[in-house]
Specification:
- It is a single chain.
- With about 450 residues, this protein is α/β, with parallel strands linked by helices.
- It has 14 helices and 14 strands.
- It is globular, with a radius of gyration of 21 Å.
- The N and C termini lie far apart (about 65 Å).
Length: about 450
C-alpha cells in the first residue's frame, strides 16, 4: 500500500517539482547494476521486483550485467534484497546527471531539424509538410487514434503512388516510438523518411529510386504519441501509453478505483506471441504491464488491422521496429530462447550484413543476435509479425548508445550520426531480404 501511495504523491506533486528541467519531472532515481553471470539467481529476484513495479530494468549487457533503476524511496528495502548479489550504484542521482549533461536535447527551433528532439506536434507538422511537398511519391494516412484521441499516422512512400499498380508492390513496414522515452527511435525513423523523400543523404538518390520503384514503404514514426508527449512534458523516462486503469481489479460501484489509478500499457508487450510471459507483469503500475489481453490497446490493434489488410492485397516483405538502446539488431524469437526459428540462418546472414554496413559509416558496433539472447519477453510486435503475419524478415533495432549512461538520454548531438548509420543498415537489410533472395533465384 505504501508503494502505491508513494506513486500517487509523485503524480500529485509533479507540477511543483518541474522547475529544474523546464517542465519535465524526473523523479529521484538511482541506476544500479548487478552481475548475473556471477549470481545467476539474481535474475529471478530482478524479474520478481520488476513485476511488482519496484524496479525498472534498463538493459542487459553482452556479458550479462543487468542495469536497473530504483527510486530513492526504495533504496533501503532494495539494498537488503540485493546486497547479497553485490550490486553497484552506477548513477547516484539520475535527475542531477540529466541536468549536468544537458542531454535532454529538446529542440528549440521552430524549424524541423535533427539538432534536437522534437515534440509530437512538430513531427506531425513535418510529416504533413513533406508529404505535401513530395506528393508525387508520398501520401500521409491516419490509420487509428490513441486513447487520448491523437492520430496514428503512417507515410506511404513509393513511385507511381497515385496509380493502382503501386498497391501491388511488396510492403516494407517501419515503425518507431512505441516506447515513449526512446526519443532517438522516432528521430531516426524521421531521418529515414527524409532520406527516402530526398531531403537527406542526397548521394543515395539513385539507390532510393530503385527501392521506390520496387517497394512501397509504410512508415509510422510514432506509435505512442500520448506517451511521447508525456515524456516531453511531465516525466522524461515514461515508457508506456497513457490509458488509465485501477491498480487492483476492484472498483467502487460508480466506477472509481478503491486504490490509485495506474496509467499505461507497455505496447511492446501487448501482442499475442507469448503474451503475459517473461518480462511482463500483471501489476498495472509496472512498466512492463501488457494489458488484460493481446491487442486490447488502440495502438496495437490499429497496426494489426492495417498490416493484415495489406497482406490480403500484397506481400509484406519487412517488419522493422526501432527502439533504444544497446546497439543491437534483434531477430526472432523474443518470447522464448528454447526454440530456434526455421529462418535462423537467413536472419543471421541478414543481421551480419546490417551490422557491418552500420559499422562502416561511423565505426559503431551493433550486435546481431536473437532477441531472446538479450532477454526473453512475451508479447513483442516482431514475434507477432514473424509468426502470425508470416513476415520472414521481422526485426527490431536497439539504437545508440551501448551503455546505460546516457542510456535513454542520448545527446542530441548524436541524432544525425545515428540516422546516417541506420540508413546504411536499412539499405543493407533491404538488399538481403528473403523476398530479394527468392527473386534472384528465379
Amino acid at each position: 500500500m505504501l508503494h502505491l501511495l508513494r506513486y500517487t504523491w509523485v503524480v500529485l506533486l509533479a507540477p511543483a517539482l518541474t522547475t529544474k528541467l523546464g517542465g519535465v519531472y524526473t523523479p529521484p532515481y538511482q541506476l544500479w547494476k548487478v552481475d548475473a553471470n556471477r549470481f545467476p539467481r539474481v535474475k529471478i529476484v530482478l524479474q520478481t521486483s520488476e513485476s511488482q513495479g519496484e524496479i525498472d530494468i534498463f538493459s542487459v549487457s553482452k556479458d550479462n550485467v543487468v542495469y536497473f533503476m530504483v527510486t530513492k524511496d526504495d533504496i533501503a528495502m532494495l539494498d537488503k534484497r540485493f546486497s547479497f548479489f553485490k550490486y553497484e550504484v552506477v548513477i547516484e542521482d539520475l535527475e542531477a546527471s540529466l541536468i549536468k549533461q544537458n542531454i535532454r536535447g529538446r529542440a528549440n527551433s521552430n524549424e524541423f531539424d535533427f539538432f534536437g528532439y522534437h515534440g509530437w506536434d512538430k513531427i506531425n507538422e513535418r510529416l504533413i509538410e513533406i508529404s505535401s511537398n513530395r506528393s508525387d511519391i508520398a501520401q500521409l494516412v491516419t490509420f487509428g487514434k490513441t486513447f487520448e484521441g491523437r492520430d496514428l499516422k503512417y507515410i506511404r512512400i513509393t513511385t507511381n503512388i497515385s496509380e493502382d499498380v503501386s498497391l501491388n508492390k511488396p510492403v516494407l513496414w517501419i515503425d518507431g516510438g512505441i516506447h515513449a522515452r526512446e526519443w532517438i527511435a522516432p528521430a531516426t525513423v524521421m531521418y529515414i523518411v527524409e532520406t527516402l523523400l530526398g531531403y537527406q543523404e542526397l548521394n543515395l538518390t539513385s539507390k532510393v529510386k530503385s527501392y521506390l520503384d520496387e517497394f512501397q514503404f509504410f512508415i509510422a514514426p510514432m506509435l505512442n504519441p500520448d506517451g511521447y508527449l508525456y515524456s516531453h512534458t511531465r516525466f522524461r523516462l515514461w515508457r508506456k501509453n497513457r490509458i488509465p486503469g485501477c491498480s487492483k481489479n476492484i472498483k467502487m460501484w460508480f466506477g472509481n478505483c478503491y486504490y490509485k489509478a495506474c496509467y499505461g500499457v507497455d505496447l511492446n508487450r501487448n501482442w499475442p506471441e507469448g503474451f503475459g510471459g517473461p518480462s511482463t507483469s500483471s501489476h498495472r503500475c509496472s512498466l512492463v504491464y501488457p494489458g488484460e489481453k493481446a491487442f486490447d490497446q488502440a495502438e496495437t490493434m490499429a497496426v494489426k488491422n492495417l498490416l493484415q489488410e495489406l497482406k490480403e492485397n500484397t506481400t509484406v516483405g519487412l517488419y522493422l521496429s526501432y527502439h533504444s538502446y544497446s546497439q543491437l539488431f534483434l531477430a526472432p524469437y523474443g518470447y522464448t530462447g528454447d526454440e530456434i526459428p526455421p529462418d535462423y540462418e537467413h536472419h543471421k546472414k541478414v543481421g551480419n550484413e546490417v551490422v557491418e554496413a552500420i559499422y562502416r559509416r561511423h565505426g559503431k558496433n551493433y550486435t546481431n543476435q536473437r532477441a531472446s539472447e538479450l532477454y526473453s519477453a512475451g508479447g513483442l510486435s516482431a514475434d507477432w509479425a514473424y509468426l502470425s503475419l508470416g513476415v520472414i524478415d521481422s526485426y527490431t533495432f536497439e539504437l545508440r548508445p551501448n551503455s546505460p549512461d546516457p542510456g535513454f538520454l542520448l545527446p542530441a548531438e548524436q541524432i544525425i550520426e545515428t540516422g546516417q548509420e541506420n540508413v546504411d543498415g536499412l539499405f543493407a537489410l533491404i538488399d538481403n531480404l528473403h523476398h530479394n533472395q527468392n527473386k534472384k533465384k528465379t
